[in-house]
Amino acid sequence: MSAATVEAKKTLRDGAFGHATALSCRECGHQIELGPHYACPECFGPLEIAYDFPEVTKAEIEAGPRNIWRYKALLPVPSDIEQSPNMEPGFTRLLKANNLGRELGIDNLWVKDDSTNPTNSFKDRVVACALSAARELDAKVFACPSTGNLANAVAAAGARAGIKTVVFIPSNLEQPKQVNSAIYTENLIAVEGNYDDVNKLASEIAGEEDGWAFVNVNVRPYYAEGSKTLGYEIAEQLGWRLPDQIVIPVASGSQLTKVDKAFQELIKLGLVEDKPYRVFGAQAEGCSPVSAAFKAGVDAIRPVKPDTIAKSLAIGNPADGIYVLDVCNRTGGAVEDVTDDQVRDAIVLLARTEGVFTETAGGTTVGVLKKLVETGQLDTSLETVVINTGHGLKTLDAISDRVGARATIAPSYDAFVAAKII
Amino acid sequence: MSAATVEAKKTLRDGAFGHATALSCRECGHQIELGPHYACPECFGPLEIAYDFPEVTKAEIEAGPRNIWRYKALLPVPSDIEQSPNMEPGFTRLLKANNLGRELGIDNLWVKDDSTNPTNSFKDRVVACALSAARELDAKVFACPSTGNLANAVAAAGARAGIKTVVFIPSNLEQPKQVNSAIYTENLIAVEGNYDDVNKLASEIAGEEDGWAFVNVNVRPYYAEGSKTLGYEIAEQLGWRLPDQIVIPVASGSQLTKVDKAFQELIKLGLVEDKPYRVFGAQAEGCSPVSAAFKAGVDAIRPVKPDTIAKSLAIGNPADGIYVLDVCNRTGGAVEDVTDDQVRDAIVLLARTEGVFTETAGGTTVGVLKKLVETGQLDTSLETVVINTGHGLKTLDAISDRVGARATIAPSYDAFVAAKII
């Protein structure tokens, strides 16, 4: 299927993928040449990027642009990546969260706030790397199946890059969410089916059509590397230091494993001190196959049928679930889950303590952070980072019956006084 | 009324307002001491901040934080402002807009994208300065009347700062917009009336109650200075150079006059070369009192009753309208207006060319940019900046019948092929 998807150019230009050297199978270690491939030809295991990194200094990175391309030497992108029109995502705020920390009893807490990315989620990071791959592979169409954040990011990045985009969504998606993507692309295609049907169709198209780059299908190895930049930024923003503990949402599980990969790379490159850190995964109870496996102490994921308000985390059969278990077990972390009500509570808690309005995925992560404290799984004396992956404006429905006006008064000072507002 | 609003502390701490020296009347030039005042005791003219700036170098600014506090020496804030919890707004992207430029026939076009601020509009800048003033004046309540962006910014900043917030809105405001503010504050107060009624009530409360800082009423002089940071950032991001032309939306008119003030300060401080620049104001036809005055060549604003989808610009009697006329006339610019349909077209145009989803205010500004080209008022060979003040997710309704799915297909490859999507 790989060869048919994005036809490999006869000759890739030198350095098309930066210091990447090959695609390497995460299961059997078999390596193949860089191209539009995502499954190992030997064992069908997932492929990821292998590199031969040069020496990279803090000074070089700090002199770079204020977006993910400051780490371009560590990504599968060419050295002139900034010259190609892109969304310039990343280098989002790392906020000291003293109010939330006080509320939860954590001494030293930070929120990595990816809701301020160009299309308001971390997906801008991964899509930027996928776009670079699509360009280098001479793809004609930049596409994805999605119900939300990914669709926004692909449609916007494609518009700015001047590449044709096609975004596939389930036809029953709420109209406001359709608008969020249709604003950027004239090719929003509604598919009569659920997300799994849309995803399956995308894989079929990727297998049959030449020149289509589906970000999360046939250029997935490049795409996934974008999540490493979350890890790089957290370390740099802490003053080139790894946090002691980090809490990360788990959908496919890719983001969590890539943040860990980023930390490991920084250690190997000598950019941060080698020290222990614990990685925690966050799921919603209504879609918690990885949490269930972690708690059961097994190393296989049993797929589930998702039923949660955290729709951007609702992947019932997460591709990287087993690797999440590896990371959390290796680092002494855990995977935990919370109910939809706990997700809603956590959204309000984060907004009212830190002024950050997160989507349901972020509510899940903050909710799990709280639960990890309450269950004694998190050491409250250690420096802790929690990732907010997207903006609450995208999942307003989830909390619209939770918050609202406290009082309604007549437009007069007397009415104000009578209402005893404060 | 001023003295009753936020009670002046017996002793303000040294440097509470940085290098600000006084409040100066824009009409008669009378100066009074710094405090919670906004109207001249002599002539009732609007007060603005006067400074005695120290020498400020580019290097000092560049070594500062990646937010508006890099310019703290030029703002009415203390030198330790970063130590107080705040939203850390600003230093948003200045995007080279080659696609939009090509579409409009402008050679060298940039978009200053303030939709990526913490609460997704430029209001985070002004509110951050108002918050500092409220803190230094020992205010007990941080408040505003608003229907949208300002309410979001005040509620979020207050939450993070740990100061009590009260946000007043018209009771008929759509429920999603109520949620956008209520998420951050438990004190969202619905007022039975229109925005003018709410605004009037806010002024009454500010006049009667001690300890209330209404950002856009009694600490307005401090608040308004925050808009200068848009001008500083544009100049710095262009490589310490002023643009030749800039297009700015006009609601009260404050932002436009403050960007001009910022450019003038940078010239006086020797941080940029003194060169001509032209400032253009953008209004929606349904609320275009400043544009009407400009076109009529008069220097008085005739108030109007707003009727436009650009609700964040819908101020029928803009306080700084006459100063907008001054700036646009002095610099050889203009004030122009566009219809609601042109606003909608411009929102789609910006999204599809640059991947930036703007609210109706930004649609107004980009629409006016287009009209300025078509009417020959803008020189298309000169470097031009257009400001995007807020995010389209906040005004989805305005374009929800404009964009949507292009096709609906069955979930099969055959159906995909039959639909001839590309």
TrEMBL record, chains A, B:
Keywords: Lyase, Pyridoxal phosphate. Residues 89-390 form the Tryptophan synthase beta chain-like PALP domain. Belongs to the threonine synthase family. Its cofactor is pyridoxal 5'-phosphate. The keyword Lyase applies. The modification N6-(pyridoxal phosphate)lysine is found at residue 123. This is Threonine synthase. One of its GO terms (biological process) is isoleucine biosynthetic process. Coiled coil: none annotated. It comes from Nocardioides daedukensis.
